[in-house]
Design goal:
The complex is a heterodimer of chains A (about 500) and B (about 250).
Chain A lengths: L8 H9 L2 H25 L2 H17 L1 H14 L3 E5 L2 H14 L4 E4 L3 H5 L2 H7 L3 E4 L2 H8 L16 H12 L7 H18 L2 E4 L3 E3 L4 E6 L3 H7 L3 E7 L3 E2 L2 H15 L7 E5 L13 E7 L23 H5 L1 H6 L10 H12 L17 H5 L6 H14 L5 H14 L2 H14 L4 E2 L2 E2 L7 H4 L4 E2 L6 H13 L7 H16 L5
Parallel strand pairs in A: 1-10, 2-3, 2-4, 4-7, 5-8, 7-10
Antiparallel strand pairs in A: 5-6, 6-9, 11-12, 12-13
Helix pairs in contact in A: 3-12, 9-10, 15-17
Chain B lengths: L2 E3 L3 H5 L2 H12 L16 H5 L3 H14 L5 E4 L2 H14 L4 H13 E3 H8 L12 E5 L2 H6 L4 H8 L5 E2 L15 H4 L1 H17 L4 E4 L2 H13 L5 E4 H16 L2
Parallel strand pairs in B: 1-2, 2-3, 4-5, 4-6, 6-7
Helix pairs in contact in B: 2-13, 5-6, 7-9, 11-12
The chains are: A alpha/beta (about 500), B alpha/beta (about 250).
């Protein structure tokens, strides 16, 4: 039950598709989350309006990101926070290490943060001999398995409880039964000590509130609250696009995010942190750092095809809705982020058109991701834009280029198209048996490995049309006046509207 | 009033009875369907693969073919979606073709949209005594919002037993070149879809997009399952002819 192997998505998917445990685990949980979301959005009543509101808030913030970032930084600094800016992943890791060295830290306890995965912070700490422990149960499990998360919000979605029991038993030095309560109880006891020992608490950030320079964290286990209150130093990693203007806007996000992610009306813990511990505070860190991470995000600003990518609130709803993700799991995708958002984000953040290979092809463009997205990011369109960029830069396979040249020639002329169909009707004869092509040959192999192809009929529609239309002419009835009027009105309305729907 | 048929390349070459059914059905409402021969393909196979220059060559035949039509009717939500959502993008740098794209967009209708929204027809007077299930194709239902129209049309078919398809809204795995490039994933998706179709024990699977139906139908055939696969236009037309025969028209 290791990670799917292979050098690209296609190969890893092939290996994942054979792993029944993985597929069953992923299907089971995505199904549960999807149904949860469905119930929560229906119960909400005005979901589409809130979705549009969410989109507007995010789009506005991203369009004025320079303004809101400087406001956020100014306000956070006024509260005594040390704010750092990391242009690239390695800068974020370097800054975190400098802080750890400066504080003489021996151990770090973390709450869930996808940005920390993105910048590989655990590895950076480990190199220095600083222990870095994940405290979110799912993250803790995959840390023990030495694997990256395979889902944005359910990092261990690909593991069933028996596999989890095995991992935790190893850690416990005794056999733990595969019962959720017992397993969670073990992790809780184990992690409690870590919280108390840790020198640094490292968190992610769901939203940064520009008007007060505050950080807001959504979670269900209470571990992020421990991480951000017990250790003396807190480091928060924040993607530079995580901002919203005000606490009022948070109301919309606090409604959209949990409902989309897990179907919860509200998240169990929502912590708003404004600066380090003050004189009369009961708890909180003495020192607080926020590392704002760019790592390719600013490359999307001003790009009409990809800027909306920054509107993402990392709910994972697109993963749960995606039929491809459901079949292959998160580890088949390259990079930290998986599913439809990952398929776009990974190439877009890296801008390495040549290297990202086939991830943008791992979608049937069904649009389920767009439909699920609480801020309406058109991921299905972006996947096509990515494919287009690869083509424009000449990085596609030569066979494909040839095939597309052929397409251009044939489909550019109805006469050639007609001839090609005719040639197909004649040429297929050797392959057709009982009206179907079944042989698994050449370029059709991928198709015929799962399906038979109906043979081309003797005459295409365009060949049949002259005879057909004469035949149908006999059955033409008079049109009703009402219908005629409707059609007239529609045509008139178009002319009045200046010609645009 | 010029009402034109955009047959789509797949129905033209592989499924001619769909065009016949559309022409036959509309004739009964006084519409003489017009078929401009210069049309080829909407361009999606190239467009979705990122080959936009190649897609434009194909899309131009569509812009030309229907330039003087008042209504364009398509037996596919996917090809209609291509015209609606991507033609303006595809021709954004050509003022003349951009304008043509926008004009084409506002007069192009998927077949059931045209019947229900334009003609106001929800009962075609069909009799089809079979057990039927329906796969709502992704582009039609998600990009164009075609959800009610086919249901309204089917609800008026007499003698028909409708069985809802479990997980109906899940993609069948077609996705054009996706089915070839990512054949294993696509294969797993269509296997799952066929399984759901078989669970309904329907005699007939009906849909609005022949890409998807070629995929699901091909997989059902692969497993030697005798489910009849039809475009809704074919089902309705057969139903209308059934009714006319029994009535002795």
């Amino acid at each position: 039950m290791s990670k799917p192997q292979g050098s690209n998505v296609k190969e890893r998917a092939k290996s994942a598709l054979k792993d029944e445990f993985l597929i069953d685990a992923v299907k089971f949980t995505t199904e549960k989350l999807k149904n949860g979301k469905k119930a929560a959005t229906e119960e909400h009543g005005n979901w589409e309006e809130w979705r549009e509101r969410g989109r507007l808030i995010r789009a506005h913030t991203i369009s004025h990101l320079d303004y809101y970032l400087s406001k956020f930084i100014e306000n956070a600094r006024a509260q005594g926070v040390h704010v750092h800016f990391a242009p690239e992943a390695k800068d974020a890791a370097r800054i975190a290490i400098e802080i750890a060295k400066h504080r003489g830290a021996k151990s770090v306890v973390k709450s869930k943060s996808m940005v920390s995965e993105e910048v590989h912070i655990n590895e950076a700490f480990e190199e220095l001999g600083i222990e870095s422990i994940e405290s979110d149960l799912g993250e803790y499990i995959i840390q023990l398995a030495n694997e990256p998360p395979s889902h944005i919000i359910i990092p261990a979605i690909h593991k069933n409880r028996y596999q989890i029991a095995d991992l935790l038993s190893k850690e416990a030095g005794e056999t733990l039964p595969p019962e959720t309560k017992i397993l969670a109880g073990f992790a809780r006891r184990k992690l409690r000590d870590k919280f108390l020992e840790a020198d640094i608490g490292l968190t992610g950030c769901n939203f940064g509130i520009a008007e007060t320079g505050s950080v807001v964290i959504f979670e269900n286990e209470g571990n992020a609250r421990m991480v951000s209150t017990v250790p003396k130093t807190q480091i928060t990693l924040m993607g530079m696009e995580r901002l919203i203007p005000s606490w009022d806007d948070l109301e919309v996000m606090a409604t959209l995010l949990p409902r989309s992610a897990t179907g919860q009306k509200l998240t169990v813990y929502m912590s708003g942190i404004t600066g380090p511990r003050r004189e009369h505070d009961g708890d909180g860190p003495e020192e607080m750092h926020i590392i704002i991470v760019d790592n390719g995000r600013s490359l999307q600003l001003g790009d009409p095809e990809f800027q909306e990518l920054l509107n993402c609130i990392r709910c994972g709803a697109c993963l749960n809705a995606c039929p491809v993700y459901r079949h292959i799991g998160g580890h088949s995708y390259p990079g930290t982020y998986s599913g439809p958002i990952g398929a776009v984000l990974t190439p877009a953040l890296n801008k390495n058109t040549q290297e990202w290979h086939d991830v943008a092809n791992a979608s049937s463009l069904c649009g389920a991701c767009y439909e699920a997205c609480p801020v309406k990011i058109p991921l299905h369109d972006m996947l096509v834009y990515l494919r287009n960029r690869k083509v424009e830069r000449g990085y596609t396979a030569s066979g494909e280029k040839m095939a597309m040249k052929g397409f251009k020639m044939l489909m550019g002329s109805h006469k050639l198209f007609r001839k090609a169909v005719k040639a197909g009707q004649i040429g297929q004869k050797l392959l057709v048996r009982d009206g179907y092509i079944r042989s698994q040959i050449g370029p059709l192999k991928g198709w015929t490995a799962y399906r038979h192809i109906p043979a081309l009929p003797k005459r295409s529609f365009r060949e049949q049309w002259p005879g057909l239309s004469a035949e149908i002419e006999k059955s033409i009835q008079p049109m009703s006046g009402e219908m005629e009027l409707r059609m007239e009105e529609i045509v008139q309305a178009r002319r009045k509207g200046g010609g645009h729907a | 009033m010029k009402v034109s048929l955009f047959i789509t390349c797949i129905s033209d070459a592989l499924f001619p009875p769909i065009g016949e059914a559309m022409a036959g059905l509309l004739a009964r409402y006084g519409i003489r369907l017009h078929f401009p021969e210069i049309q080829t393909c909407c361009g999606q196979p190239a467009f979705n693969s990122g080959y936009w220059d190649e897609a434009r060559a194909s899309a131009k035949t569509i812009l030309e073919a229907f330039d003087d039509s008042d209504f364009v009717i398509v037996p596919s939500g996917s090809c209609t979606g291509m015209v609606h959502h991507y033609y303006p993008k595809l021709f954004e740098n050509d003022a003349v073709l951009f304008e043509k794209s926008n004009r084409l967009k506002e007069k192009t209708y998927e077949f059931t949209q045209f019947l229900v929204q334009v003609l106001g027809v929800t009962d075609v007077g069909a009799y089809f005594p079979h057990k039927v299930t329906y796969h709502p194709s992704c582009h039609g239902s998600r990009l164009l919002g075609i959800k009610e129209e086919p249901m309204q049309l089917m609800s008026h078919v007499e003698g028909m037993e409708f069985v809802p398809l479990p997980y109906a809204e899940d993609c069948c795995g077609f996705g054009g070149t996706f089915a070839i490039k990512m054949s294993e994933i696509s294969g797993a998706m269509v296997e799952e879809k066929s399984q759901h179709v078989l669970e309904t024990e329907a005699e007939v699977l009906v849909g609005l997009d022949m890409g998807c139906l070629l995929n699901i139908g091909g997989n059902l055939k692969f497993h030697d399952k005798p489910v009849r696969v039809l475009h809704l236009a074919e089902l309705l037309y057969e139903g209308v002819k059934n009714r006319e025969q029994t009535a002795g028209v």
